Amino acid sequence: MKAALIVIDMQEVFFRLLENYLYDKDRLVGQINRLIGQARAKGMPVIFVQHTEREDERDEFYEGGDDWQIHHGMDREESDPVFQKTKWDSFYQTGLEAYLRENEIDELVFAGAQTEFCIDTTIRAAYSLGYQRNRLFAGTHSTLDSRVLPAEQIIRHHENVWKGRFVNILDGDLE
């Protein structure tokens, strides 16, 4: 089995604008960077996915804008692949699946934002594409409060839905 770490949408928009701050954002960055370090130590590829808007220049995710950039606090290296997506699904028209197949990667570790949008959609899409030995470590994904639920409850709800179905949710270190 060959695994890769996929870091989704950890972009400046979630750290620069108060109304977009991710729940427990500083701890999240630390936890993801810890995973990145562990992945590199094991020789696992670290892949970044970046939400991208190409038509509306006023959109926070407009390609090339300051908010669109991958968060400066992420331990990203120039050699890390970056796939830009325009939908919530990190596989949709991005080249991610081709990259994984070409590199014979059959196990995915997910991290990033936002829990109920791009993380959820990507985890489910990966499962449907045949990636069924996937992992998610507690504290490595986050979201914003919604009008209905606080972020912490959104996270707990989604982990309950995913656990044992679409992804294994673990505590501790990348093994």
TrEMBL record:
Keywords from the named record: Hydrolase
EC id: 3.-.-.-
Q: Which InterPro entries match?
A: Isochorismatase-like_dom, Isochorismatase-like_hydrls, Isochorismatase-like_sf
Pfam families under this entry? Isochorismatase (PF00857)
Superkingdom of this protein's organism: Bacteria
Tell me yes or no: is Hydrolase among this UniProt entry's keywords.
Answer: yes
**Record domain Isochorismatase-like: where:** 3-132
- GO MF term set: hydrolase activity
Per the record's keyword annotation, is Secreted included, yes or no?
A: no
Q: Which family does it belong to?
A: Belongs to the isochorismatase family.
Known PANTHER family for this protein? ISOCHORISMATASE, PEROXYUREIDOACRYLATE/UREIDOACRYLATE AMIDOHYDROLASE-RELATED
What is the protein name stated in its UniProt record?
Answer: Cysteine hydrolase family protein
Q: Which organism is it from?
A: Cohnella soli
